[in-house]
From TrEMBL:
Domain Acyltransferase: 15-341
TM region positions: 20-41, 47-67, 151-169, 181-204, 216-236, 256-278, 290-316, 322-341
Keyword annotations of the record: Acyltransferase, Membrane, Transferase, Transmembrane, Transmembrane helix
Entry-linked Pfam families: Acyl_transf_3
Gene Ontology terms, MF aspect: acyltransferase activity
Protein name per UniProt: Acyltransferase
Lineage per the UniProt record: Bacteria, Pseudomonadati, Pseudomonadota, Alphaproteobacteria, Hyphomicrobiales
Amino acid sequence: MGAIQGRKIDGNLSIYLDLLRLGAAIVVFLSHAHVFLLPSIKIGPLGWGREAVAVFFVLSGFVISYVGQVSEKEWRAYLVARVARIMPVALLAIAVIFVADSIGMHANAFYYDFINTGFFTPVSAEAALAYVTFTNQLWFAHAVFGSGEPYWSLGFEVQYYLFFGLFAFSPRRAKVPLLFLWAAAAGPKILMYMPLWLMGWLTMKCVIERPPFRRTISIAMIIASLLLFFSLKLFADRAATNMYETWSLTQEAINFVYFNLIGVAVVLHLIGTASLLSQAPALFTKTGPAIKWLAGGSFTLYLVHQPLILMFASFLHPVEEHIAMAVALLIVCFILCFLLAEVAERRKKFFASLIVSLLPVPSQTGQKTPANIASGTVFEDDAAPATSQLIRVFAEMQNALDGEEKVAGSQDAPHRDRVSRA
């Protein structure tokens, strides 16, 4: 895919995207905290977890398509960047689920029997394998490993990464057959919510490749997005269930309309906000670094918070009798999630370099030798040509990771010189 020449995400929008993904992760966190630790607290946004996942999908389509067109010019760079981003955090989440569930069940096994099975399923090798391979949501499957219910969205997300990779990097003649094979393997549930991811892609193209709207139109789009969102929450919220649930064809049709309209609201909001921010001075000079740092742990927060919340809830059950301690443990849980982010999520460049350094490099003798990409050396001198190519791929991958960080938190990117349009 060709790179977008001379067009970058400006600093204001970059930090705002960070703020959105952080806010969505916190909404999911608080939604589950409300259910298990603070059920007596009634606040509207605490029940918006399902909609927050729809926001994630739109943002993912925006960011991945952006770095795919700006930074990632080679399929190996795209693959390594995705694996380095997803796999370490996924494996960390599986480990946290196992440990937290083991501690919680040892402390209060009755509590885990008391929990609705939608939030806890005893760990199994089959579910662990589905999590590691991200096949937990293919067709009508809904594999759950312990208390790791939020992991379900990765079964969708990784499939959309695969779709984009096939679309962007497969040979032209093989593209359509490969995409059909992918769709047949993914199944109808994943395809139903793919429009959310594609909306993010189209939003990126609108924001990056077209001039901004006038201020009045931008504000109107933001107002329209809020009216649409709150109208859906007011009139259709109870009719919709979770995206992964497949109770009946009628229910699936309702869910399809509901969540994709949520996606439309997000698109309107992003385009309107991007137009306003592109014409504004730098707004996040002081707060930008803090927002960027917090957003840099939002993926870990999303994946590991629920097993930790359930573990703490098992200590206090019934939690209604220990409100102050529940609040304290909730704060501890939030902090612990960000400490865990230091182990994997904030180390994606390290994991990417590790993956590439382990790739075999064909030498002129036909043998394969490992390359130390970080130092640019190999174990055999005659492997230099192949090593140079691999180093180039690694450099592209590093640019891609840098691109992700900039689209999700750079305050230094210049504003685009664009003409406002009606």
